[in-house]
Design a protein that fits this description.
The protein is an alpha+beta fold. The strands form 3 sheets. Strands 2-1-5-4-3 form a 5-stranded antiparallel β-sheet. The chain has a 5-stranded mixed β-sheet with strand order 7-9-10-12-11, with helices on one face. A two-stranded antiparallel sheet has the order 6-8. A hairpin with a 3-residue loop joins strand 11 and strand 12. The protein binds adenosine-5'-diphosphate.
Length: 496
């Protein structure tokens, strides 16, 4: 697929680009640093080697012939010859005769008619050079290139009552020209060699590094592709060990969420289908009964006694009731199931609600002589929940308790404060629920178990369970066949 073709090479290209830039930068800085130090080394060597050249000129020449004429001016012919001789031997040097303040008295390299020519040089480097005997590397002014500093040799003279210096620029203009040309050629070769060599090494190391760097990425890409192609079990193994562990972990989490959601959707879908299948079965029975009795009434209207007619009508009436109850429950349940109901929580007195419900259901309990009572009625307990949903849940539970309790039995609603919660318990002395059925009573429609389906047709407990879920609580059942059942759930108390 296209993922493989585009993702990795683009990253590789970027990595390569970064590598090449790095190599070039390294090459340039390497050349720059080498050039700087090579140049310095060269200059230091030249200065150290020629440190006493100026002194030598004074010792050799100034003893025999004065550099000054009787009138105090510079002996140009003597000095000119001397300078020419020296510069012929070493074309890199330039000789100057300075007075005690550094003013240039004479030089053959400077045009005496040039008004812009340098007139003096700084005296401090010269004095420093002389004082440490030329041992240390030091730069002085170059009269031919103002503003630039060059290596030099200098020595003091004192002739005919005049003091000054012989100042020799060791790496003069000529030296500089030759040196920089050679340096350029040398460094061009060195630079090229260095860049080629570095590029070669960088290419080898880069290839290996990029291969390793992108290894995890390739692995992850493969897994993502597997997943996108439908293999929902595809996960990145050992994601914490991956170079991009955040990505690897996120992918695994995302895949888990997706498969979790798919599972949830599938089970929801299954539940809906079961619900439809089971409910339609449950609807069909009372409908068939209705149809049967109505047809009998139609066909045998004249032959049926008043008593029979009354009985048949009562049966149809009961079945219509059953049908309408089931349809209402179904409607209610599907609304809860589709999460269309949002609980509106408010503080209310569960004690008062219990009283009201007991009063209301007494009508239902009375004919069966069932004792319906509220335990712990004195305390007024406030809970924080959705009043109408809690009322609905309690109605279903009390209704069931009365329904499944034999005449003269007992149904108790008890409220018990337990820390921050109120425990609400509906107990009866009824038929009880076999242990094998207990796990299924709240989602009977999920079960294809025929025995579980036989006993009832309503959705009462399924609705109760959904209401509990909306209140982030659970309902438990404790029941013993023939002894009775207790349904227990907790609600948070209201703290004002
Ligand atoms: P219905 O009562 O309409 O069948 P419910 O969802 O209210 O539907 O109850 C599911 C099943 O749980 C009932 O069919 C019954 O078998 C069992 N059941 C519920 N409450 C009690 C109870 N108090 N005592 C005994 N069995 C009960």
């Amino acid at each position: 697929m296209s993922t493989k073709k585009t993702l990795t090479p683009r990253l590789v290209k970027k990595l390569w680009f970064a590598f090449i830039i790095l190599v070039i930068m390294m090459g340039i800085s390497y050349i720059g640093i080498t050039e700087y130090f090579a140049n310095k080394h060269n200059q230091e060597t030249t200065q150290r080697l020629n440190a006493d050249v100026a002194q030598h000129v004074i010792d050799e020449k100034f003893q025999n012939v004065s550099p000054f004429l009787q009138d105090g001016s510079v002996n140009k012919s003597l000095f000119g010859d001397l300078m020419h001789d020296m510069m012929a031997v070493n074309r890199g040097i330039e000789v100057y005769l300075l007075d005690g303040n550094g003013a240039i008295l004479y030089s053959v390299v400077l045009d005496p008619n040039d008004a812009n020519a340098t007139k003096s040089v700084a005296i401090a480097p010269i004095e420093s050079f002389i004082s440490d005997g030329g041992e240390n590397f030091i730069l002085g002014d170059d009269p031919r290139t103002p503003g630039e500093q060059k290596i030099f040799s200098a020595a003091p003279y004192s002739v005919d009552g005049r003091n000054g210096y012989v100042y020799i620029v060791l790496a003069g203009k000529k030296f500089q020209e030759v040196s920089s040309t050679l340096m350029r050629q040398y460094f061009a070769k060195l630079g090229l060699g260095a860049i080629l060599l570095t590029t070669l090494f960088a290419a080898i190391i880069g290839l290996v590094a990029i291969w390793f760097l992108t290894k995890n990425l390739r692995l992850i890409t493969n897994k993502v592709r597997q997943f996108s192609e439908g293999d929902l079990t595809a996960r990145i193994e050992n994601p914490d060990a991956s170079d991009i562990s955040i990505f690897a972990n996120s992918f695994n989490e995302m895949a888990d969420t997706i498969t979790g959601n798919i599972d949830k959707m599938q089970s929801l879908d299954l539940l809906r289908r079961e619900l439809i299948a089971n409910v339609s079965h449950d609807l069909r029975t009372p409908l068939a009964i209705l149809k049967g009795y109505i047809e009998t009434l139609q066909m045998k209207r004249d032959s049926l006694s008043e008593e029979e007619k009354k009985e048949y009508l009562q049966i149809t009436h009961d079945n219509v009731d059953k049908l309408s109850k089931l349809i209402n429950q179904l409607f209610e349940y599907s609304k809860l199931e589709a999460e269309q109901v949002t609980p509106v929580k408010e503080p209310f007195s569960i004690t008062e609600l219990s009283h009201d419900l007991i009063a209301k259901f007494s009508v239902l309990a009375e004919p069966k002589e069932i004792v319906l009572k509220l335990e712990n009625p004195k305390e007024n307990n406030l809970v924080y929940a959705d009043l109408s949903l809690v009322e609905r849940a309690l109605q279903n539970l009390i209704e069931n308790a009365i329904k499944y309790t034999k005449p003269k039995g007992k149904v108790t609603l008890s409220l018990l404060k337990k820390g921050d919660e109120i425990e609400i318990k509906i107990s009866d002395t009824g038929t009880g629920i076999p242990l094998s059925e207990q796990p299924f009573i709240f989602d009977r429609y999920k079960q294809v178990d025929e025995s579980a389906k036989k006993r009832g047709s309503g959705l009462g407990l399924a609705i109760v369970k959904k209401i509990m879920e909306l209140h982030d609580t659970t309902i438990t059942v404790l029941s013993k066949p023939k002894e009775g059942s207790s349904f227990i759930f907790n609600l948070p108390t209201y703290k004002s």
